[in-house]
Amino acid sequence: MASSINASTTAGVVTTADTSGVLNIQTAGTTAIAIDASQAVTFAGAVSLSGNQTITGNLTVNGNTTLGDASTDTILMTGAPSIGGAGLGMGMGFRNRIINGAMVIDQRNAGAAVTLSSDLYVVDRFTCRAMTSLTSTAQQSSTAPTGFSKSLLYTVGTGATAAAGDRNTITQAIEGFNTADLGWGAAGAATVTLSFWVRSSVTGTFGGALANGTLARSYPFTYTISVANTFEYKTITVAGDTSGTWATTNSAGIYVWFDMGCGATYLGTAGAWAGADYRGATGDTKLVATTGATFYITGVQLEKGSTATSFDYRDYGRELMLCQRYLPAYTLIAGQNIVAAGMAYNSTTCIIPISLPVSARVYPTGVTYTGTATNVQVVTGSTIINCTAFNFNSGSSNTTAALNMLVASITTGASVLLVTPVSTSGTFYFTGCEL
After folding, report:
1. Total-model pTM
2. What is the end-to-end Cα distance of the chain in Å, rounded?
3. Do both 166 and 201 map to the same domain?
4. Tens digit of pLDDT for each residue in 235-255?
5. Which residues span the domain enclosing 330?
């Protein structure tokens, strides 16, 4: 039972009353708004709100919901809001499955150009390959569209015709844990949309592909660059693959390829899944054929659903942590600060375990250092000892990396502290964790 206020089509406003504490507001005898005794409100139909709105308490909305105009409105949510559904992929926490899609993290090269050959990491999580023009380079660039500060720049050296087996690409491998919910390889595979900003000195129909981790399934796609040297926004929607094997743990789940001019062996028909290793589309534009040609890309996003949404910006700290799952790093800042404690394994080797900033995808297998090893020091008691060199200790895990710091002489079994260099900083990069 409920009290009601009904806008009747024959009798005007009609009211009924009872003692239930429930109020229904009706039109033509149908309840549009129900208010229960606890003052919870249920709207039966569409709700349109204009102007600023303040909602206190819990708000539950079922069905399709539009919040504001993406180009002009700001939605402010406090507390711990939860928004899900297929339209937002995994919700607000990880809508974009691409890591470092805005190209802002460049741990290895700090913007320096990389001369390409086989797949080499340029900015974090993106590799570039050049087999046709071995004088080609790639690097992080500050040339970017509005809303972005960085892009990835691929520059062709001496242009040449790609041989059938040549692969010239920009690539990201997405970990299976981050794509498992797409359900690819079975009925009900989710649709995804790839979006990005691109600019090139060459116009035409360019290509790329999505592929599984074993490279046995692929989907070539095309997009058109219409105006030279101007950023353009592109979207490609792909129906999920119901065939093949798609990794769902820590190996490569999906490869995203952008074709810079692959040979015929790696090109297939656009717009269809194929049981082959394709990196681009038949007939697409060959950037590598043009000497000095440039190709910029940024804002790369792969998300669940058939509609491209605005770029999923994550704060710099979180993006760096996501990158360091694949390239753990530890920076030593000059000034003799204590880094870690260890022990002298023998008279010339100190073993120092270092906690990694995040859990690595797999155990690291090696280490590089951007500074000078002889500037790093260990301390035992009141004695400071300069290291002569270092190497990787195989006793590492995905949460701790161990270093063998080599010294001229030390007492076996002595407790030691690894301290930062006196004058110059440097960073240890623990390798072997990339896909």
Report:
1. 0.80
2. 62
3. yes
4. 999 999 999 999 999 999 999
5. 325-431
